[in-house]
Specification:
This protein has about 230 residues and is of the alpha+beta class. The protein has 3 domains: about 5-55, RNA-binding S4 domain (Structural Genomics Hypothetical 15.5 Kd Protein In mrcA-pckA Intergenic Region, Chain A), CATH 3.10.290.10; about 60-115 and about 215-230, 2-Layer Sandwich (Alpha-Beta Plaits), CATH 3.30.70; about 130-205, Alpha-L RNA-binding motif (Alpha-Beta Plaits). The protein has 6 helices and 15 strands. It binds uracil. Uracil (URA) binds near residues 101 and 185.
Length: about 230
């Protein structure tokens, strides 16, 4: 983004004020005063105004983790281990989880410091499919395929779930793809048919598939190609 637009995006800063700030030499990029509004600001750049940091200029970081059961999808928890405990990375406090999983749910978890990118991955409008392997306590009623495709009414949120694709893999096993992520959605959908989910594993989020080479608890950085897909 051009530096003048970057500054004009600040609260209470008009385009005219941005030009004045630049002309008076109050903005710097990576320690150099920049007066040229067309200067390209990248995510890696440190941008300061009157010495105050507007953008830290750290590289964006993206990881996929094969979440084991028993870890909470939080950055800190007073009682339980968190998924961040599984990462051997510096400055973990800058990272956040893009699409949480319940503590007993396993599988694909994305962790990043890039909020815009993670919003694209998780925002409902992007309608990216999230695929789960589900095991249930009781026999899966085959009519669930149609019911899930039509959507279920959730009274608490006063909404009908978006069409979801259920593929039966066995009497107690199925693959379910959702295009939204309401609280405990998979468990509540099966619960509607008096069936308890006993194992839930996320395999995919949009174009990102859990790397089969990652054992539970292991993680790796996303590749540039994976990052560019979102
Ligand atoms: N649905 C659930 O019920 N739990 C999860 O962790 C994810 C989706």
């Amino acid at each position: 983004m051009r530096l003048d637009r970057f500054l004009a995006n600040l609260p209470h800063c008009s385009h005219r004020q941005a030009r004045l700030l630049l002309a008076s030499g109050r903005a710097s990029v990576n320690g150099h005063i920049i007066r040229d509004g067309t200067h390209d600001v990248r995510i890696f750049d440190r941008v300061e105004l009157d010495g105050e940091r507007l953008q830290a200029g750290k590289p964006a970081r993206f990881f996929m983790l094969n979440k084991p059961p028993g870890y909470v999808s939080a950055t800190a928890d007073p009682q339980h281990p968190t998924v961040l405990d599984l990462l051997d990375e510096p400055e973990k406090e800058e990272l956040h989880i893009a699409g949480r999983l319940d503590s007993n749910t396993t599988g694909l978890l994305i962790i990043t410091n890039d909020g815009l990118w993670s919003r694209r991955l998780t925002q409902p409008e992007s309608l990216l499919g999230k695929t789960y392997l589900v095991e249930t306590d009781a026999l899966i009623d085959p009519t669930c395929v149609d019911h899930f495709a039509q959507g279920l009414y959730f009274r608490y949120e006063n909404l009908t779930t978006l069409p979801a694709e259920l593929v039966l893999l066995g009497s107690h096993q199925a693959r379910l793809t959702l295009r939204q992520g309401r609280y405990h959605q998979v468990k509540r959908m099966f619960g509607r048919f008096n069936n308890k989910v006993i194992s839930l594993h996320r395999e995919r989020m949009g174009p990102l598939t859990l790397d089969a080479g990652l054992a539970p608890g292991e993680y790796r950085a996303l590749t540039p190609a994976e990052i560019a897909q979102i």
